[in-house]
Amino acid sequence: TVCMLILYDCILPNVFVFSGENYKTEGYVVTPNTMNLLKQHLELTGGQVRTRFPPEPNGILHIGHAKAINFNFGYAKANNGICFLRYDDTNPEKEEEKYFTAIKDMVEWLGYKPYAITHASDHFQLLYELAVDLIRRGHAYVCHQRGEELKGHNVPPSPWRDRPVEESLVLFERMKKGMCAEGEATLRMKLVMEDGKLDPVAYRIKYTPHHRTGDTWCMYPTYDYTHCLCDSIEHITHSLCTKEFQARRSSYFWLCNALDVYCPVQWEYGRLNLTYTVVSKRKIIKLVETGAVRDWDDPRLFTLTALRRRGFPPQAINNFCARVGVTVAQTTMEPHLLEACVREVLNDTAPRVMAVLEPLKVTITNLPADVHIPDFPADETKGSHVVPFSKTIFIEQSDFREAMEKGYKRLTPDQPVGLRHAGYIISLQRVIKDGRGKVVELEVTCSSSDSAEKPKAFIHWVSQPLQCEVRLYERKYCSFLYYTCDPAEVPGGFLSDLSPNSLQLVESALVDRSVSEAKVFDKFQFERVGYFSVDPDSTAEKLVFNRTVTLKEDPGKI
Q1: Which of 207, 210, 429, 483, CA to CA, is 20 to 30 A from 317?
Q2: Distance between CA atoms of 507 and 501, rounded to whole angstroms?
Q3: Across 194-203, 323-332, 357-366, which has the greatest mean pLDDT?
Q4: Catalytic position from the list 50, 281, 308, 343
């Protein structure tokens, strides 16, 4: 967090105003009551910095939200302030309880604790009363234009814009009591937004029960109406939002001033995008519905639940957000930059174990003793575990060749190889094949590496291992799911760009028995293979591992 705020100060000098100095913000409209409202705000907050993270509970948070979480919570923390988690739950048609739970879990997983968890629905009654006041002040009216007429920016002027205040009040009350059909009427505000949109909607009718208020309401406020007023009610000092909301800054200030309530500061920053993926909730739902991915937490996605399942440490995501920094311009990054941050964290935190994904049986004719293997070879003081060294061990099929090849340094009939951590060198004595000529077993002898010539390579191995399932998320270029840098721009649509080989299942991999007590999300480095995390599909009978990242950057990336 400290690194992030240093970066903010370097990139965005003089952007932020102090609490109580809202009137100094560009575009802020000062009214005769502004200074009095700011004074009351300072008396209530004591000049404390207050931010909020306000997600819509209609999907799972993604990597772009991680930047918003770090920014909102980080800025408050660095200034000894507080940050609210506020659910923007104004559209009951798309909201589900699992999204509320997942949002809270992901905020806390990233290491942040909200000062309070609030909901826009907490303020439905007050928001309604303020809407009535807005009508009385002559700043809002009930309109009967249909939804299709209100789409886009070239909306025709409403013929009901100048209807009498009393008439709008009566109609608004009818909307509240359920006496109007869906789409029959809306409440609109009398203003022109910065992008030219005329008279945005403040309330619309939806006969959908709300998860918190039930059937109490049949009309719900919109984002344009709700957001700034909830900020005002909660005495937020800095409303931090992404660049696309810049077109709503004037309406943000206008509505607070039109109702003569405290007006926070709004400041916009560039959102974070990743290439070779999609984070749109609508598109992810389509991927789930078509079976292209299993669910929102499929490790091939870049939702936060998916990244957690794949094994990304929260610290690595926070470090990535810090390196990206905060600028006004939109930032588009490649996934391998995020993976580099993951490797840095896992290199210091993921214990080393040995696993074989494509096992080849090796029988040792002269049997040595068990082996102590350090959890972190670079720092053996951080512990070790014992691996049995039995007559039968298993190595990777790719670590043996019947015929010597130029540059090949592993086991061949004429080339011995070292066993990693064991202190032994094995030499081939006999190759055993099945009826189809496939190599199924090797017979070898072993000798101490102290008394023999140093081998050209040391390979990993397992003995008396556990069978496990390993899920490899393979990529074409930079993506785990897509071929193209921007799948949304593919002529055939983002679903036509899916990689058919994005997931490879290894159902009979073998892993060091020392991981037998591993829990979901525990992380390990499988030596010479990659970093892996225990998947929630694991059972007492069989562990399932997701490959988080390879040991080195993917050489196939663009």
Answers
A1: 483
A2: 16
A3: 357-366
A4: 281
